[in-house]
Amino acid sequence: MARSAVMLRQACRLIPFERSIPAGVQISAELVWRREGWLELSYGVLARAAKGIGVLKLPEELNDGPQQGQRKDELWTTTCFEAFIAAPGEQRYWEVNLAANGDWALYRFDGYRSEQTQQELSTPPTVRLQRGLHQLRLDARIALEPWWRPDVCPDLALTAVIDRGQEGLSHWALRHGSKADFHDRSTFLAA
Q1: What is the domain-level CATH number for residue 147?
Q2: What is the SS3 string spanning 44-69?
């Protein structure tokens, strides 16, 4: 069986905007963009603290393996893994939100934080979760056709919001501007 062509692969460590994050917490992210119109995202959280990933606020009743989520707004108000993809040379961009329980959202913006609409998908994303005492991994696969041209590599930003309960939210990205603003196109990597 022929393998699908990978147009873009990006793997990196995310950095927190907040300076109060314990040194033992690390987040990695990987994006694979396939010519056939698929976006694959993987996020890994490593928490070396005594509580391990127990320091993260996650949905209750969470099991490892495939998740049966639904479209849901405001996932970014708690632990949420995100990707921003943009049409090169254009103002429009899309925001992908993924929760550990498989809930998801996809929004289109016609400009910086303007004219937000829900982007329809031909099929819901597939989300798979694996956890250990000190590690969490979320893998997702999203079909972007027919709304994205398969021959166009995106500008992108890989991000995460981590909810540490009493310690509050932390904002993780490839790079940050003067504030924690994932919509800031100057923080996107160009295709």
Answers
A1: 2.60.40.1190
A2: EEEECCCCHHHHCCCCCCCCCEEECC
